[in-house]
Design a protein that fits this description.
The chain is an alpha/beta fold and about 450 residues long. Helices cover about 35% and strands about 15% of the residues.
């Protein structure tokens, strides 16, 4: 099913706007649980880095990374990469080998990124000493920084506590983080740090009493097996473009359905393939020219748009003749761009249910748009954990938050709070069509 679309001017709103932590919508303040204003996921490359979780504007966290993801960090504007552990054999994720500490250091060096690894392989991460070690590295490194490790909960715990530690040490440090903000942010991120040992460490770092009953995450408990997703509420999750190997991880960790919101190969008889990620190539080069000729992945185009012309060719592979990628089969790309038919065919090998519910990236959202998919979305939601995906997670978030709100009878204030916490500023003036869609479907804020 294809939704008939209307175009909108995305010049001002495509990448979102920063917002006040207490954002006013009508007469209601949205008390966001983020430590500081969040921007659209992915820093400067939302398509490549949609999975990077923003803790502060200068610190992002992730699970175990492949060398491709470290290369994406370079493309996306990061200056430093920190591995929480010296991991010599971090294993695989989705059939892809995760980068060992030596491989990650090598990839970072070629890309011109600063790199550090903090803890020995068997060292305890849930202690004050680990937070102190991480803090020293963060202070010394140029920002923004990507922090990662094969235990994403350990990376998130120590990084969040770093902000609390700095708040205690430095009166000018921002954002100011105490125990309450630590637990609200960790719950928002889908993390559960409520074990007694962890609560003791939090109290020691903040200098505050142990919080007896901190807020807990409301996400499906096994979701962290696919740490790249963003929890919306209970069984609903969002993502950007998934990779071939991700299907295995989603299956193993209990997901039931995947909803792809990217465009197919054609729309109204015109070619409509979206772009695919290419290392050292910018996100914003269109697939087609004005005559629908597929130009993005031609050699002449790629040579003219390279992000870093001085980058060593070894950054791509030891035998590469150029310092950029030309195709990306792992993300269902062909010689033109993203090919939905390849993704759809691959899902036939999986037990996951696959739904193609496409929305153009420039669609004007309305209640009618949502109503066309509403019944199907609620049916899918009743079946178990659902992953929405598109290119960067924007379409997935706009519809995913609304689907969760409808399924669980949440109000407009909840939906606006949640979508803003995911990094998308929705109010009467920013993404105003999304705001109106939410208002029309859920109903206005009470007493507004």
């Amino acid at each position: 099913m294809i939704v008939r679309i209307a175009k909108r001017n995305t010049t001002a709103v495509q990448y979102g706007l920063l917002f006040f932590r207490s954002m006013s919508t009508g007469s209601v303040d949205l008390r966001l649980d983020t430590l500081s204003p969040r921007s659209v996921p992915g820093f400067k490359s939302s398509k490549k880095l949609w999975w990077a979780k923003e803790v502060t504007p200068k610190l992002y966290v992730a699970g175990g990374l492949t060398d491709t993801q470290i290369k994406y960090a370079h493309d996306g504007g990061f200056n430093g990469v920190i591995s929480l552990y010296h991991e010599n054999d971090p294993g695989q994720f989705g059939g892809e080998q995760l980068a060992s500490v030596s491989e990650a250091k090598y990839a970072a060096k070629i890309a011109g990124l600063q790199f550090d690894a903090i803890l020995k392989e068997n060292e305890d991460w849930a202690c004050v000493k680990s937070v102190e070690k991480l803090t020293h590295s963060i202070i010394e490194m140029e920002k923004p920084i990507m922090l990662y490790g094969s235990q994403p909960q350990a990376v998130a715990f120590t990084t969040l506590l770093h902000t609390a530690y700095m708040s205690k040490l430095d009166s000018k440090y921002e954002p100011r983080v105490n125990s309450e903000k630590f637990y609200k942010m960790s719950a928002l991120m889908g993390m559960d740090f409520t074990a007694d040992k962890l609560k003791s460490v939090v109290a020691e770092i903040t200098g505050e009493p142990i919080v007896s009953n901190p807020p807990k995450c409301d996400a499906y408990q096994n979701w962290m097996g696919y740490w790249l997703g963003h929890p919306v509420y209970k069984n609903w999750f969002t993502a950007g473009q998934i990779r071939r190997g991700h299907l295995k991880e989603l299956e193993v960790h209990g997901y039931k359905s995947v909803i792809n919101m990217r465009m197919g190969k054609t729309l109204d008889s015109n070619p409509s393939q979206e772009t695919v990620n290419l290392i050292n190539i910018p996100d914003n080069v269109n697939t087609y020219d004005e005559n629908y000729n597929p130009v993005r992945q031609t050699q002449s185009t790629l040579e003219n748009v390279v992000l870093d012309p001085a980058l060593d060719r070894k950054h791509i592979s030891p035998s590469s003749m150029v310092n950029y990628e030309t195709q990306n089969a792992e993300e269902y790309g062909d010689e033109i761009g993203f090919n939905e038919e390849i993704e759809s065919e691959h899902f036939k090998e999986s037990s996951l249910k696959y739904y193609h519910l496409p929305l153009d990236i420039n669609i004007i959202y309305s209640a009618d748009v949502f109503q066309q998919y509403k019944d199907k979305l609620l049916e899918i939601g009743r079946d178990g954990p659902v992953l929405f995906h598109c290119a960067i997670g924007k379409r997935a978030a706009f519809i995913g938050v609304l689907a969760a709100a409808v399924q669980y009878n949440k109000d407009l204030q909840w939906a606006l709070k949640r979508i803003n916490e995911l990094g998308f500023t929705v109010n009467e003036t920013s993404f105003s069509d999304v705001y109106k869609m939410y208002n029309d479907v859920i109903g206005p804020i009470k007493n507004a």
